[in-house]
Amino acid sequence: MTQPTDASAFADHADFYRRGPYARYMIDRKIVGQAPVSLFSARQPAGHFPDPAMPNVLLYLATRGTREAQFDWGCGRWVGPWRSQDLTLVPPDTASDVTLSGPHAFIGLCLPVSLFDGEETCARERLGRLGPLYAAPFRDDLLLQLCTTLWREGEDSTGYSLFADSALHLVVDRLTFLAQQRRTPERGDRLSPAVLKSVDDYINEGLDGTLRVADLAKVAGMGTARFARLFRQTTGRTVYAHVLALRVARAQERIAMDTTAGLAEIALDCGFSSQSHMTSVFRQVTGRTPGGRR
């Protein structure tokens, strides 16, 4: 069977996966609600997976993560771990470029732009406000439950259509709320608790590797300079000092709990460049050396 190659031949991302070059990776596809909305699941190996621009908003839910992902859908390239239960949002009419380091799996919700029409705002204006969510993966327990329930219940349950319509509108409202949380007022001098939690989750996930302020800024949904300034105003310390403090805390925990590991091994596992680097930072932060903890 010949696969279509023109993006205009596909109705949405689910159709692209069903009939396009990724057809062999698709597991299942479901249609829910009156809109209607396509849901699909896929499992892919490591590799490069560019998607063409589609008219729908695409909400990904990772069901199997991978060590490193590179995403770019018009907001700059993001690099970091893509964890199970991470959510990512792709704006409409935007080609996406995705590279993943290992096997991964996900559920995709193809949300029509019409779902974002509101009583006081048109869909395009509302979609523009979702900007902070386009920059990097995020997590949310309510969206996780909605997505998994929509997928699990499928299209066969009695009365499911009414639930699906309500759930899909709640998904849209929740996305709008999360984006608003991540936006700080132009003259605001603090990062919101939700943004700080997202940043800390990202740091803790990659504490043993290289962390860049630019990547943390993308998680927060803002420019690097503004993020660094607001982070210091909110926490009282620089991003660099905060990361070092978290590395020291993790090293302290390892030293206390793992008596068989050497200090050099612990240093590398906690993101320090060497044992001497860890010792120097340890002394600055705690006033003691790592060896004094044993």
UniProtKB/TrEMBL annotation:
Keyword entries, A-Z: DNA-binding, Transcription, Transcription regulation
UniProt-listed SUPFAM superfamilies: Homeodomain-like (SSF46689)
PROSITE patterns to which the protein is assigned, alphabetical: HTH_ARAC_FAMILY_2
HTH araC/xylS-type domain ranges (all copies): 197-294
InterPro entries attached to this UniProt entry: AraC_XylS_family_regulators (IPR050204), Homeodomain-like_sf (IPR009057), HTH_AraC (IPR018060)
Gene Ontology MF annotations: DNA-binding transcription factor activity; sequence-specific DNA binding
PANTHER family, per database record: HTH-TYPE TRANSCRIPTIONAL ACTIVATOR RHAS-RELATED (PTHR46796)
Entry protein name: HTH araC/xylS-type domain-containing protein
Organism (species): Sulfitobacter alexandrii
